[in-house]
Amino acid sequence: MNEPNFATPGQQLAVVEEFEPANGCFEEDGKVFAAVMGNAKTEAHQASVSNPKAIDHLQRGDLVVAVVRDVYDSIALLEFQPLKPRAAFSTYSYIRIANVQRGYTESFRDVFRIGDFVKAKIQEVKPLGIYLTMAEPGLGVIRAFCASCRKEIQPNDSGIDIQCRSCGRRQNRKLANATNAPRPPRRDFSRDRRPPRSNR
User: Fold this and answer.
1) Answer CATH for 63-172 from 2.40.50.140, 2.60.40.10, 2.40.30.20, 1.20.1250.20
2) Angle subtended at Cα 167 by Cα 134 and Cα 112, rounded to the nearest 5 degrees
3) Which of 105, 127, 99 shows the shortest CA–CA distance to 118?
């Protein structure tokens, strides 16, 4: 273990071939940088920066509840809220189609739709964006809305093919474990938001 050295934000501490970024650090282009001011340590193949007075920032592995705002071919835009109080430079995040579930996913429509609430885990925290994953067990959709009538869909045990009780349309979702999934907040995402589109 190296003795602690004082580091400032943006200071390079190591390369990812030797040390993974931990608390107070981020990775960019194969290099590990300090994200906060404090004492830098490199031990157990991890680089970290600690500061008792620093704000507790989002970090890899944190759980969030997010609402799907838009989807594209290979990436989706979500707005999130941490499950534990954390400081974030943005409440918007991204999820790659390769990280929504294990195995091949042809379309986001097989996993979630715009307006759905999901339980996800932070995979990467970078200056240009926060990236999420839903591939692990227990992560996925915790509140779904029908792509046709926009009524809320009651989940079933399968977590794959669900049917809207209002209009009868069947559709796919990757549902989180219902016994572990928290009820998503209603008020934080409802103000001055445009209604979600239903054809994606």
Assistant:
1) 2.40.50.140
2) 10
3) 99
What is the domain class of 5-50 according to CATH?
mainly beta
Q: Is 44 left (phi over 0), alpha (psi -120 to 50) or beta?
A: left
Query: In DSSP terms, which residues pair with 28 in a beta bridge?
Result: 31
Ramachandran angles phi, psi of 109, nearest 5°: -65, -15
pLDDT band at 127 (very low <50, low <70, confident <90, very high): confident
Q: Which of 87, 40, 43 is nearest to 62 (CA)?
A: 87
Encode pLDDT of 141-159 as tens digits: 988 888 889 888 876 655 5
- DSSP secondary structure code for residue 98 in this structure: G
Q: What is the pTM of this model?
A: 0.60
Segment 63-75, tens digit of pLDDT? 888 899 999 999 9
Q: What are the tokens at 172?
A: 């796919």
For the chain, the structural domain boundaries read 5-50, 63-172
Residues 147 and 198 sit within 8 Å (Cβ to Cβ): yes
Same fold: 5-50 with 63-172: yes
Contact call for residues 178 and 184 (beta carbons, < 8 A): no
